[in-house]
Amino acid sequence: MPMLSRKADYALLILSYLHHHPEGGCARGIAEHFSLSRGFLANILKELCQKGFVSSHRGVNGGYVMNRPAESITLAELLEALDDGFRLAECSDHEGHDTCSLTSVCPMKTPIRAVHHRIHEVLRQVTLAELFPNTQSVAELIPLLGMLPDRSDIAESGHRSPCSAHPLESPSSGVTPLAEVLK
């Protein structure tokens, strides 16, 4: 079971595209770039507009742009806006709603809620900018995830590694960098 819905996954792709194209992009161009369904993408763009993540501009030079910098949007904020919140299980609703019929007898309720809260805390610490590296090189993403030692020497020349000195490594917003969260 994926923890990200298809809608959230596509929204991340859209926002990544717009982050890397600050001049904006049209629905057709974004759909073609990722080989996505234009209809589904258009619906997600509409919802991203309604939720305040992007703005649309009509006309010949129209398209979509991000309303806020990716550094100011957390993964939790996006998931909560699009999917009505993140829930690990029925009993882990952070608003206290219990829809599970086994709640009164389930020995897993408390530990599952604790895991849910820990995951939610991590999601609140990860900004979209950390998910949208300045490079598309897989070689540079691997050290970020801690899978292999930093091999900046195999990254394409002219691109800095996402693990190198970066303004997000000492955030003033109180948001912990993704590399730090994953340690």
From TrEMBL:
InterPro entries: Tscrpt_reg_Rrf2 (IPR000944), WH-like_DNA-bd_sf (IPR036388), WH_DNA-bd_sf (IPR036390). GO terms for cellular component: cytosol. One of its GO terms (molecular function) is DNA-binding transcription factor activity. Residues 155-183 are annotated as: Disordered. NCBIfam families: rrf2_super. This is Rrf2 family transcriptional regulator.
